[in-house]
Amino acid sequence: MSGAVGKDRDTLHIAFGVDENYVHPMGVTITSIVENNPGLDLVFHVFIAEISQANRERLEQLEIHFRRPIDIHPIEDLAEIREQNVSKSHAYISKAAYTRLLIPEALQGVTDRVLYLDADILCVGNVARLLEMDVGDTAAAVIRDINAPAMCSRLAEKGLSLGDYFNSGVLYINIPRWIATGVSERTLEKIADPVLNLGYFDQDALNIVLDGSVRFIDRTWNYQYGLTGRLKKVKDAMDVPSNTKFVHFIGPMKPWRTWNPHESKSLFLKYQKRSPWAGINLDDGFTPREFYVYSKFMYRLMFRQRRWLQGLVWYGKFLRRKYLAE
Predict the structure, then answer these.
(1) Between the CA of residue 314 and those of 231, 232, 293, what are the distances in Å?
(2) CA distances from residue 249 to 146, 225, 256, 270 in whole angstroms, order as listed
(3) Looking at residue 128, what DSSP letter applies?
(4) N or C end: fewer C-beta atoms under 10 angstroms in the chain?
């Protein structure tokens, strides 16, 4: 794929860290970004351990169609950085945690700023203002977590007093400052600390390390949207502020499931149809564990809504998965 351009202040670099199962939703995320920012100079970076030939070809099609570079960074190629940053005693730390933390090192010399995004996000607005955003001498611009008070209280019980708590699904990283202050190395140390025993691993660790060293920006840059609570309340319409840039689907329920009765599925399909993943089954890549969790949620939801027949169908699916798991 195309090589990334240099340190051009008119170019927005966007990075993802995914596995094979998340390439599909990530591709839809990329599509949503370009569709809502047709005149913006964009370069995408995909950090991944393994990618199928089919998904690699779809990313190439996406690159050609939108005329935006999509650079694939195999995680194996970053092994040297990993060895430099962390000792062998920390080898159990997940690839997902390593991926996000390796991005600044990998893009050093390519760009001074990079927008990191989780793959369960859809862009619904113009993001060009990021290019003009002054992050000063902070390591990153971040968005407050929707559960920040509870998160701070939980960490306070461990003797950690934080000024605030951000969601790590959207990070606008100041690469020189991040590297100069050793954020990745210090974060890995916190993740691996058995005394801390962090519940949210790299997100908790990043908050501890970056406390007081980030700039909090408006929640419209990471509008955290939980489908579970809304579905339980029979709220199936998209209800986000008109100036929202990114909708972040937090929690286990995602918009790309066929059974999803929420309007978010239509929004996801809108962009999927404009991508090389058009027509792909939304439930491809459903793991047995995910199916067990979702079917349990769905039969309870249907019964709560007095949709008895659909509830019985989902209850049957739940029992079948439960039986197979035993």
Answers:
(1) 15, 16, 11
(2) 12, 5, 10, 16
(3) G
(4) C
For the full predicted model, state whether its pTM sits above 0.85. Answer: yes
Q: Tell me the residue type at 320.
A: R
Residue 90 has a pLDDT of 47
Query: Each residue of 3-59: pLDDT tens digit?
Result: 444 456 789 999 999 988 899 999 999 999 999 999 999 999 999 988 999 999 999
> What is the SS3 assignment for 212?
coil
CA atoms within 13 A on the CB side of 89: 6
SS (H, E, C) 261-303: CCCHHHHHHHHHCCCCCCCCCCCCCCCHHHHHHHHHHHHHHHH
Whole-number Cα distances in Å, 93 to 54, 90, 189, 215, 235: 29, 6, 10, 27, 38
Residue with tokens 């929420």: 262
CA 47/CA 143 separation, integer angstroms = 23
- From start to end of the chain, where are the E strands? 11-17, 41-48, 70-74, 113-117, 121-123, 140-144, 166-174, 214-216, 223-224, 246-248
In eight-state DSSP terms, residue 237 is S
In the chain, the domains with their CATH numbers are 12-223 (3.90.550.10), 286-325 (no CATH)
Could you give the CA distance from residue 305 to residue 299 in angstroms, rounded to a whole number?
10
